Every structure is written in structure tokens, then in C-alpha cells.
Amino acid sequence: MNTPDSSLSPSFKSGFVAVIGRPNVGKSTLMNAFLQQKVAAVSPRPQTTRRRQLGILTLPEAQVIFVDTPGIHKPVHKLGEVMNQIALDALKDADVVLWLVDASARPNPEDELAAARLAEAGADGALKVVLALNKIDLVSDEQRPVRLEEYRSLYPQAFVVMVSASSGYQIDSLLQAILDRLPPGPPYYDEDQVTDLYERDIAADLVREAVLRHLKDEVPHSTAVRIEEYKERSEDTAYIAATLLVERESQKPIVIGKGGEMLKRIGTTARQEIEKMSGRTVFLDLHVKVLENWRDNPALLKRLGYTPSAKPEPPEWWGHRIDRTLRESGGMVGCRRFGLHLLTDERGCGLRESGIW
What we know:
Rossmann fold, 10 helices, 30% helix, 15 strands, GMP Synthetase, Chain A, domain 3, alpha/beta, six-stranded mixed sheet, four-stranded mixed sheet
């Protein structure tokens, strides 16, 4: 973390931006769009995000720290309660709240729940809220004013911007609205750091993203991913062993598939995404294990890192911090190693988590 830099302009701004909304409105997609690289897992399925993750955007004039959060919803198990609490906790320390909604659909009870939580957090009138109507490219010109008023009525104090995270439409306007509301201050993080998660954490999220893409119904939401081993075999290759944890014996054969076909598909998709993220050739070894009713077991949730606290306890060996090294390429800002430059800690790059199971 940086110390104040006396060379910074007095007008330099910095602050935390809580990204909230109901599930599946595009919060992680939007954060990835701001950072111009994929640091957060995304999928068409709701509740892809289960924990808090920072996305750190450092500009010449400001440092914007996006706090990606789980979708606010009506929980049906203790994991859902924890996810909601993580989202609500992000409001407490936010300098700006970015409330994301799906403009392609009318407001539903979960949007109303998010608005109610905003009203509670902003009861003193100090909360700065930017309302982003995402997926606006899916809304006809005739319907846009109607949809705008439907969502604006839920929280009239918000500043509203229509955007499309997937196409980039009005992303710059949304960023400017956020910058206008940030307070003056020095950067909190090194300028090349883009997230607070380590490579092994992101790898676990990308495996779960693959599960969400390939499995249906309740099975993917009953699945957690635990990284057992993460080893660099050379500068350009890595070995990852991960366990997919399901809640019931009946779910295990579904995840594995006939002759292991489904597990192979999940592994192939996850491996490709991890390789894009790390810039290395990856050997991914997946296994499936039953951990009965883990979503309703507070002790297991804590062990898996699903707690309202800011971060789970680190393992014996830290992973790689994800940093950004920019270069100019044809007038475009690009990033080395598919957008991620990997730095090891002072203890080297051999990674093996101490057993807790």
C-alpha cells in the first residue's frame, strides 16, 4: 500500500466505490470493463460472485477502488445471508455507491430490496449514489424513458447514467460521474496493482465460473471450489489441483458426467481462462468431493472464505499478487501477459496450502 506522495497534485482523488445490485445485473462485467482486463469471474448465471473483490483503477488524476460484491437477494441458506452481509458491509465505508440495475427488465423485488438497503445506508443524506442502467443496448429507444423513470423512482437522489458494460456504451461517462464524486486524497494502492486477490483465488473463481457455464439447475449453486495445490513448474508452466465440493452424493455423478466427460469439459474451460489470466500453460487437476450441506454450516463457510469479514485468513504460502504493467501499442493501452504481470513474494513461488480439512 502506498504512502502519500508529495509529488501528487493537490487535486488528486481516491476512494472506494461499492458496486451493488441484485444478482446477474453485470457488476463483475462492468468492473472488468473499467479495468480493461478480466479479474472477476462472470457467467450468465446469477450469484457468480460470492465474496468481495477489489478492482483498482489508477489514473493520472485519481485512484478508483471498485468493491465488487455479491448480488443482494432474498437468502434461502446461510451462504446467502453471508453474501448479503458482504454487500451491505461494502456500503459502510464507500465514498461512492454504484448501483447497477438491468435496464432490459422492469424492477423486481430484489431491485426494491437493494433500494431499501440504500435508503437505510443513506438516511443521513451523505450517501453519494450513481445509478447505472446496464444492458441499455437491449432496450428500444421508445422504452428507455419509461425504464429510466421506473428505476429512478426507487431512489430519486441518485445520479443516473445509461450504459452497456458488454459493449462499452457510455462507460466513460459513468466513470466521469464517479470521479466527480470522489473525495481528494492520495492513492491507497500501488499504481500497478489491479486487484486485492491472489492468482490462486482468481483461479478458484474461474473454475467455479466454468461450473456455472456447464451445469444447470441447483448443482452449480451447490458447488464450491477449493485450491489444494498451486505450483509453478517453470516460468511458463503451472500445476493446479482443485477440488469441487458439492452438497449431496447425488450431485457428484452429475458434476463428473458419463465417463468423466462433464468434469473434462469444466476443466478445459477453466484451464483456458486461467491461462489467459496468468499467461502460462496450466495443467489443471480436478476432483469432486461431497461436503454435506456446506452452505448452511457456518464453520465450513468460514473455512471456505465465505465470511462477512474483508478477507479470509491467508494460507501458509501466499499466491501471486496480480499487477498491471502497461505499454503503448498502436495508441491503445495494453497489458503484458494477457493483461497481468505476475510478481512473487519474498519467499519464492512454490505454493502449497497447509491442510485444514
